[in-house]
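Memo to structure team: turn this sequence into structure tokens by end of day. - J.P.
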Amino acid sequence: MYLIRSTDIALRVVMLLATDGGRLTVDRLADALDVPRHHMAKVVQRLQRHGFVATSRGRAGGVGVPPAVLETSVGAVVRALEGDSEVVDCDGPPCPLRGGCHLRGALRAAQLAFLAVLDDVTVRALVAEPAGPVLLDLVPHRAGGAR
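Reply from structure team:
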């Protein structure tokens, strides 16, 4: 299973923000994860739309993870961001093997197994030791305001 780049970045954003419950600006997130600011803004917007992050404006504003998201499964995040499409598209254009091929079913079973494994992992588990300290080192703390 291949995750699109924005889903990969989104998972890293959620992990980074969930590590200490703080808030970071889009600029700080982009710098920490070495992603162009414009792309980061789009990723944050998608995460916000699905409720995985909350944003606020102003001097102490930024992007943060609501506490309930810590108990969210990684599978739920991936499904929300990737959609429920199949690994292969046998219908457009129609595949001549469609009627007797077993590949589509095998790939669908593999995709469901992939997501089932991710359903057993929570965001909280992703930021547990040893990942937490490494994530915290990505963004040096700044006194006052949003980091």
